């Protein structure tokens, strides 16, 4: 059983893995599955073509007395093409459906936003970002502050 | 260019642009590293198991047709099933002796016969139930259902050979395949008229779809000559049984069997010349876990 010893995994007793690495013995089954898939899909394709286009007398001459209605030869591809188009539409519609409206509070903050509570040791976390070599911490800037920076102070009259 | 050689590390600052590719890059490209060319006759021998399986399916269908139109007496089928079982059991024991090197224990033999008698009696008791199983279903649906189940059976069947000293655990697909074949024969048998025919047909299907694959996996590793001669016998029998009802089916069956046995291996050999597997240092490393298993 020298073969079995070679393939043993490394352990505290034999910490060195064999080098050069033994070739990985992969199963050849995927090659055969691929081959069978290739052959059977090409066969199915020709069957489909013959079913779709051969005249009825020819099929009867071949000894085929019953086959599904040939309407389906057109209908199934047509339906599946529409189904593919429908997936685009469906995902788009789902995205729009789950988008909150503009006046919803979820557009401003949410359960996963990092709260802007000031740290006790470092009372203003926004200030620490101002130092030139700092990597700023991740915070959600409160909407009030954003508006203040973008649009200036609130007019006095109102 | 620069005094510093390009290195494949991200943590160093290079004078090279980000998308720089050294011109020695493709020198480590390896094509078809694990390439093992097929040879024709071993492939034909491997394809024999598929031919045998298809032939057993068609032998079963021919038997069903004969019993359905009443040209065969179901009693003969019962006796021949019993004879096939005894013959198959003797062959199985001889093969076990050849592969394992010791005889099957007496207790195991008794257990086998006990369970086979149990299956025999259970099928006999169940056959009136099975006969009326699909009484409310039309025959056309039964033919379509049986065809689908047999196609499933052929697609999922385990065509591999028995690895000596390896795992003998069945894979899920082969169990599913056997179940598909047995349920297909049950629904076909439910079309028959009397209980004895139902019993005979299901007994025969158990021989063909549950027990014969066990013998086949053992036959495949022992002797190529025996295996090839069985592969000639079974398709010949299936074509002979199908030759009387209609000619076109015989023709199609013959073409399919010849294609699978002789043409498909040649096609696979031809297709292998297009194999192009690219490997290189850019591949994801594959951890080798518990390699003793494979």
UniProtKB/TrEMBL annotation, chain A:
One of its GO terms (biological process) is GPI anchor biosynthetic process. The lineage of its organism: Eukaryota, Fungi, Dikarya, Basidiomycota, Agaricomycotina. InterPro entries: GPI_Anchor_Biosynth (IPR052263), PIG-P (IPR013717). Keywords: Membrane, Transmembrane, Transmembrane helix. Residues 31-151 form the PIG-P domain. It is a multi-pass membrane protein. It is found in: Membrane. This is PIG-P-domain-containing protein. One of its GO terms (cellular component) is endoplasmic reticulum. Its main location: membrane. Pfam families: PIG-P. The keyword Hydrolase does not apply. Residues 1-22 are annotated as: Disordered.
TrEMBL record, chain B:
GO terms for biological process: GPI anchor biosynthetic process. Pathway: Glycolipid biosynthesis; glycosylphosphatidylinositol-anchor biosynthesis. Its main location: membrane. Keywords: Glycosyltransferase, GPI-anchor biosynthesis, Membrane, Transferase, Transmembrane, Transmembrane helix. It holds the Pfam family GPI2. This is Phosphatidylinositol N-acetylglucosaminyltransferase. GO terms for cellular component: glycosylphosphatidylinositol-N-acetylglucosaminyltransferase (GPI-GnT) complex. It is found in: Membrane. Belongs to the PIGC family. The chain crosses the membrane at residues 40-64, 76-95, 116-136, 142-160, 172-190, 196-215, 224-242, 248-271. It comes from the Eukaryota. Coiled coil: none annotated. InterPro entries: Plno_GlcNAc_GPI2. It is a multi-pass membrane protein. It comes from Rickenella mellea. GO terms for molecular function: glycosyltransferase activity.
